[in-house]
Each structure stands twice: as structure tokens, then as C-alpha cells.
Amino acid sequence: MTTGFWWDERCFWHTGGNYTFLLPVGGLVQPLASGGLPESPETKRRLKNLLEATGLIGELAVSSAPPASDDDLLRVHPADYLERFREMSAAGGGELGERTPFGPGGYDIAALSAGLAKEAVLAVLDGRQTNAYALSRPPGHHCTRDTPMGFCLLANIAIAVEAALGAGKAKRVAVVDWDVHHGNGTEAIFYDRPDVLTISLHQDRNYPLNSGGADDRGEGGGEGFNVNVPLAPGAGHEAYLHAMERIVLPALDAYRPDIVIVACGYDASGVDPLSRMLASSKTFARMAQMVKERAEALCGGRLVLVHEGGYSEAHVPFCGHAVLEVLSGSAIHAEDPLTRRLDGQQPSERLNAVYRGMIDEMAGAIDFRRFAADA
Ligand code: ZN
User: Fold this and answer.
1) Which of 52, 162, 246, 348 is packed most tightly, with the most Cβ within 10 A?
2) Measured between alpha carbons, how far is 123 from 144 in angstroms, rounded to an integer?
3) Closest CA to 176 of 263, 245, 251
4) What is the CATH number of domain 3-14+35-371?
5) Hey, where are the domains in the chain?
């Protein structure tokens, strides 16, 4: 059993510069000491460092990858968008969309980030690796075909999916997005297609605004093949697992994908600055275990996790380590110092019953047989 770990130091060199994220500085808003941008390389670098410190990295097949090629990118993004991005990157960086600042060479780093996701997917589909983790940065799940958003400049997972479909290595792909924000980019790109099932678990009405409603189910040939599970703010470990059991796993069982790809953000963590949820590293590990078991039952274990958000420097490394323990089946464990705190902050049973009821209601509105109909 081989678990791939795809990363590249240069992905940590992507920079958003001094960009004010939430508060426009001026008037009564003093400039922030941090510069104000929560998306920093430290969360990802510290995950890689923790894997080194515990030795778990020694049990993974560690590799970089070539950047996604022009052909790869053009399967998803229009030429004029890529051209604008390339020119601005060569001119020192700037801002192409909404909350997507980048510095000099940002285009090449984004293409490399997408390349890590693509090669991870191809390595698993080719049987060179059992499953894989791509430590992509910048992330990708908010980026639509022509509009970069929310730190995402290229649609990493969509690029990897199209490369796999284009090469005839897969016919049906399921994308499970447990980043705390709605996976609007992946949703939009595959909204009218049944060959890619997109499922997003996210905090209700977080980011993007007015996005990710449970009634948005796809259109045309893709009608029914988009599943949104907006979770109430404050939901924690039990609600996430309930949503997996009642919605995600039955959807995968019915759809029978050739590969499962996870948009793996850790920003549902109870200490993340960009969400109001209460997941812990145990939550991420358990969700990883669930998708791993379903992938083993349905598609030879073919499973790729692509790193998305997660903004707690303290917690992301432990969440990521816990997930990689599961993927690799390693006995090397990193004790998460935040577990006790987050266990103690979980919602009461009364609140969990409310959350379960909301999830059951959403599950009841989904026609799971629809997924099998096109198989
Ligand atoms: Zn996110």
C-alpha cells in the first residue's frame, strides 16, 4: 500500500502581499499588524514540518510534479483568462478577481499547485499509488472557469478531473468537498454534467455569500448531480459524521465513481478564524476513514485528497497529520493538543438533535436513485 504525498516548496512562496482581507484600512480601521491576509503558507508548511517531525513522511511516497500544462488548463479555463493572469503575473502580480491577490510569478505557482493535484489523481488512477494527498497552494475550489475567488486562482480539482476524463482513465468522478466554505467553483464547472458528482458540506451562508443552497442540484444533464449540505453554524463532530452517513456515503454508494476526490479544507476546525464550526482533528480523521472505506468498497480504494483551506496555524498541521495517518494506515500518531478543548466545546445533545434533524430533512429531499440512473 502506497500513499502519495505531492508537494513543492515553491507552493509556499505564493504570496498575497499586504492585502486587507476583512477590513478596508482607513477611517477608523487601523492597519493590521498581520497585514490582514489569513491565507499564509504557514499552515501548509507546518503540516509538512509535522510530518517530518513525527516521521510519518517517511512512510509516504513524497514527490513534486510538473506544472499543469496549457492543455490541462485550457480544458477548464478560457484562454483570455489565462492570458490576463499570465500577463499580470509577469508584471509583478495584482488582483484578478475577488480576494485573490498574488505576487510575482503567481501564475507559475498556481499552475504548479494544479499540477500536484493532477499528478496525484493520475498516479492513483494508474495504480502507481493506492491513494494520495496533494498539498496544493494556492487552493482551487472557489475558482470558476473565468472568475478567481477566495484565494483560488485556478480550479485545481477540476483541472485534475478533466485531465483524468480526457485521458480516458476515468468515466465517473465524485468530488466531496468538506472545506468549510462552499465549493462553488467546482459546482459551477460541472453543474450541467452527470459524469462528475459534486458534493459540498459547508457552513451555511459563510462564503461565498448567497451560494451553496441545498436546492441547487445541477441543471440539464447534470440535474441532481450536485449536492449541497449547508450546516448550521456551531455544528461539530457529530453533525459532520451524520451528514457523511446520511448523505455523502449513500450518494457515493449509488453513484459508483471510478475515483473519489476530496476537496480537503481544515477550516471547519473549532479554532479556525474564517468559520464558526466545531470540527476537531478526530472529525477530519473519521471523515477520511469513511471515504477511504467507501473508495475501497466501490473503486479499488482510489482516493485523492487535495488541500484547500484551513487558516489556523496551530491546528491545520494536526488535522492534516490525522488525515494522513488514516490514508497511509500508519501507526505513527501525532497527539493533537487541541482535542481536549474541542471535545469539551462540542454542542449539547439537544443541539445535536436539531442539527441531525436538519440533515435528515436534506437527505430526505435527495433522490439517491438518480445517481445510479446514468451509471
Ligand atoms: Zn475554505
Assistant:
1) 162
2) 25
3) 263
4) 3.40.800.20
5) 3-14+35-371
Judged by DSSP in three states, 51 sits in: helix
State CA 56 to chain mean position distance.
22
| pTM score | 0.97
| Residues comprising the chain, all counted | 375
10 Å Cβ neighbour count for 361?
A: 10
Helix, strand or coil for residue 161? helix
C-alpha 192 to ligand 1 mean position (Å): 24
Tell me: the pLDDT tens digits for 124-172? 999 999 999 999 999 999 999 999 999 999 999 999 999 999 999 999 9
- The CA–CA distances, whole Å, from 92 to 34, 87, 102, 140, 336 equal 22, 9, 9, 21, 39
Concatenate the DSSP letters of all residues of 166-205 into one string.
HTTS-S-EEEEE-SSS--HHHHHHTTT-SSEEEEEEEETT
With 0-12 CB in 10 A as exposed, 13-18 as middle and 19+ as buried, what is 112? buried
309 alpha carbon – ligand 1 mean position (Å): 4
The question of whether 237 is a catalytic residue gets the answer: no
